[in-house]
Amino acid sequence: MNTPASWATTRRRPSWLPAAPEDDPFDPGAPWRPVTRAELVAAAADVRDGLLRRVLGPVVVSRGSPDSLGVRAAAARLCLPPGAVLLGDGARWVREGGAPPTRLEVSGARIAPRDRGIPVRVRPLPPQAEVVVVAGLRLLAAPPSPVRPPGPAQVR
């Protein structure tokens, strides 16, 4: 049986992590969402011991993994059903980073209560919204930055 410390350094699958198909090699740097009670308890212990860190809701990643656009998008994908479009603060967090949202807003999906490990609110897609795909995650495009004409203090 692998100890939590050994899997983070040797890249071996821990005994408590479900088996993956042969064509899906274990990557401790990839976000992962524990689902069963045993997985949640083991992941919480590894977070407490500093081997893992929380990314979004229950989703964890190895402590040494960078906070990148790809990691945030993969973490959000684990909390959403296929085909959902991430909106609001969740989409902003994926694009820009910072503190993760405490709930997600999505469009184009039906979500069962308590199904995703983080509160999810379903709302309609705003009219004329632009949807982009970032690292396999569909999300609302960033609103265009307003172009302000130069003020009197800026004109020389």
Automatic annotation (TrEMBL):
<protein>
    <submittedName>
        <fullName>Uncharacterized protein</fullName>
    </submittedName>
</protein>
<feature type="region of interest" description="Disordered">
    <location>
        <begin position="1"/>
        <end position="31"/>
    </location>
</feature>
